[in-house]
Amino acid sequence: MKKSNRTLFQNVDYRVYICFGILLSASVLFLLYQFTKHVDCDDAKFLVHADDYVVNHVVEFQDNTTGANSWEWDFGDSTAVDKRQITLHQYKKPGDYIVKLTINGNCVHEKKLTITSVSQQTGYLPFIISPNVVPVGETVQFDAEKEGGVSWEWSFGETSNTDALEKNQVTASKRLAKKRLP
């Protein structure tokens, strides 16, 4: 009995099959490479941190996005683009800035950053001098110190009204109170 030598396409050279095999292998390898290097643009871990968002204070920018290998920080103030994963920046003028981070050349993320000219920690609120606890019915002296302060408004919480407009205030407590600042 004679063996039959059958192939799928009898008139096709075996080198064509080899070329298709090589192309298929290369495609699978490229797909695996793209899959392992893929950055999920919706899952960026873009952090902005500062003790105070004030003119001439340092603001830290950091990206911890999985799979990221290149970064471009545009700070929104016409300064040069920074290409580090973690970087520091100082803003020279107060205002609202749109910070843009481009990850791996194609994922763009934005955050709005407000820079002020006065520190929130020291700029707006006065230092209030008063006892921590006041027994009911006793008078208490409230004093406020604030460099450059020009107007004062005291509201002790017993009503929704303003209780006094002077820098120093003496009042009698109507209930037991603890000093709380916002």
Explain how this protein is built:
- With 182 residues, the chain is of the alpha+beta class.
- The chain has one helix and eleven strands; from the N terminus they run H-E-E-E-E-E-E-E-E-E-E-E.
- It has one helix spanning 14-37, and strands at 46-49, 58-63, 71-74, 86-90, 95-103, 107-115, 127-129, 133-134, 139-145, 169-172, 177-178.
- The strands form four sheets. It has a three-stranded antiparallel sheet, with no helix packed on it. Strands 3-5-6 form a three-stranded antiparallel sheet, with no helix packed on it. The chain has a three-stranded antiparallel sheet with strand order 7-9-10, with no helix packed on it.
- Strand 5 and strand 6 form a beta hairpin.
- The chain is elongated.
- The termini are far apart.
- The model has no long low-confidence stretch (mean pLDDT 80).
Provide a quick synopsis of the model.
The protein is built from 1 helix and 11 strands.
Give me the Rg, rounded.
34 Å
Given as residue ranges, the uncertain stretches (5+ residues, pLDDT < 50) are: none
Beta-strand fraction estimate: 25-35%
Class inferred from helices and paired strands: alpha+beta
- Figure out the total of helices: 1
Written as H for each helix and E for each strand, in order along the chain, the element string is HEEEEEEEEEEE
Range of helix content: 10-25%
Spatial order of the strands forming the largest sheet: 1-2-4
- Please report the distance between the alpha carbons of the first and last residues: 100 Å
Gross geometry? elongated
Largest sheet: 3 strands, antiparallel
Please state the average pLDDT score. Answer: 80
How many beta-strand segments? 11
